[in-house]
Request: fold
Amino acid sequence: MSKIWLEEDTPDQVILGIDEAGRGPLAGPCVVVGVILPLHYTHPLINDSKQLSQKNRELAFKDILMDALWVNIITVSPKTIDQLNIYQATKQAMIKIAQSAPCKLVFTDAMPFKLPSKIILDFIKGDSRSLNIAAASIVAKVVRDHIMCMYGLQYPNYGFAAHKGYPTTVHIQALQDHGVLPIHRCSYGPVQAVLKPNLFSQE
Reply:
């Protein structure tokens, strides 16, 4: 992992790290997570969740939940995403987490916002620069993957356990063959492409 200079610059303050998983998928929630780790906490596996194998994410996930001082998880529904757009829906969830966190200093992964009585710092590639953001990214990714695997059992024709709702060829074909589900994000282009012909055919 690259140098965690952000935490080193604030050695006497606990930090809330916030990240999300699931902005890009066509189906399922966006999972937004805040994590506060103990001061001077280290862990050999905690890194940007996208850089870890599934096995290592699961191992780190268990340790984070056991060792963290505070964890908050918000699942943002497809309906909310469609109503607000993914950026605003994610931002609102991050603000809720920051508001409720028992600390003043908040690091986010490239999501700027302001709150009274909080210091909010947003960093590009924050999950590779802050241990707390990286921990949040791992929890968000694992929680969302678990949710999508459950949807895979509920909707066996769509392959959610494999592609996790992302717009893969298999997923697009399943949309075309079997239609749009309640868990799909209807404001996303590939889903709209399936919905619009159906709307026109009913006129």
